[in-house]
Amino acid sequence: MSDTPKTDHAYDGIEEFDNPLPGWWKWLFVASIVFSPFYWMFYHGGASGRSVEDLYNVALAENTRKQFEEIGELKPDEATLASYMNKGSWVKVGQAVFRANCVSCHGREGEGKVGPNLTDEAYKNVANLEDIAKVLINGAGNGAMPKWSNRLHPNEIVLVSAYVATLRGTNVDGGRPPEGRTIAPWPAAPAESDADAESDADPAGDNTDDGK
Fold first, then answer.
1. So what's the pLDDT on residue 206?
2. Residue 69 pLDDT
3. From CA 31, how far away is CA 37, in angstroms rounded?
4. Rounded CA separation 167/122 (Å)
5. Would you give the DSSP letter of residue 143?
6. CB 211 within 8 A of CB 145
7. What is the share, in percent, of the chain residues with pLDDT greater than 70?
8. Alpha-carbon gap, residue 42 to 118, rounded angstroms
9. What are the boundaries of the region Disordered (predicted)?
10. Domain range summary for the chain, segments of one domain joined by +
C-alpha cells in the first residue's frame, strides 16, 4: 500500500491521492497570466509592424532578397513594371515590402493617411507607370515623400511599384479623397516567354511614401 496521503474525495470507490502541483509550476502559471496582457498589447494592440502577419511579411521580404539572384536586377521601366504587376507571386512580395515600409503614410490597404490614397484614379506625381518607380527612387513633394533608393533593393523598388500599380481603381472604403489628376490607364503586360513564366514561381520557396 502507498503511504501517499489521500484527499477526502471518492468517486464510485475511486480514491484520489493528495499530490499538489509543484510550487514552481504554480508560479510559472501565475507569471504567464501576468505576462499575457503585456504580450497582447505588444503584438495585438494595433501597432503597425508587430502583428504575426506583419512579422511574417518582413521575414518573407528578407527571404525574397535571396531569391533575387534568380531574376537578376530588374529595371524600373514601364515594360518591367507592366510585366511584374501581372505576376501574382511577385506582387505579394511587393505587398510585403509595402506593408513593412509604407503603411504609416498610405495605410495598410493603400487608402491613404498622411500620404495620398493609392486606390483611386487620381495622381499628383505620376503621369505613367514608370513614374511610380521614379517617385520611390527620387522622392517627391520636397521631401514629403522620401527617396527609397538608399533603403530598398532595386528589385524591391520594382516589386513594390508593381504592387502599388495594382491598387489603382480598387477604391478602398474610407480612403482619402482624390488628389491630383486622372491619367491614362496602365499599359498591357508584354508577352511572356516560357523562361519568364518559370521565373514567376512562388518566390517564397516552400515603406512612407507620399509620392503618388
1. 47
2. 75
3. 11
4. 12
5. G
6. yes
7. 87
8. 29
9. 169-212
10. 6-44, 52-198
The Cα 181–Cα 39 span in angstroms is: 45
Query: Would the pLDDT of 84 be above 90?
Result: yes
The secondary structure element, H or E, covering residue 8 is strand 6-11
Spatial contact of 119 and 175, defined as CB atoms under 8 Å apart: yes
29: which 3 cell numbers? 502559471
Summarize pLDDT for 51-81 with one digit per residue, the tens. 787 788 778 777 777 778 778 899 999 999 9
DSSP state of 140: B
- State the residue for C-alpha cell 509592424: 49
Q: Is the pLDDT of residue 187 over 90?
A: yes
**Mean pLDDT across the chain, nearest whole number?**
85
What CATH code is assigned to 52-198? Answer: 1.10.760.10
152 Cβ neighbours under 8 A, 6+ residues apart: 97, 101, 136, 160, 207
Measured distance CA(147)–CA(129) in Å, rounded:
17
The gap from C-alpha 97 to its chain's centroid, in whole angstroms, comes to 6
Q: For cell 513614374, what's the residue?
A: 131
In whole angstroms, what is the distance from residue 117 CA to residue 76 CA?
Answer: 22
Which residues does 33 contact at the CB level (< 8 Å), separation at least 6?
none
**What's CA 118's distance to the chain center, in Å?**
16
Identity of the amino acid at 25: W
The one-letter amino acid code at 158 reads V
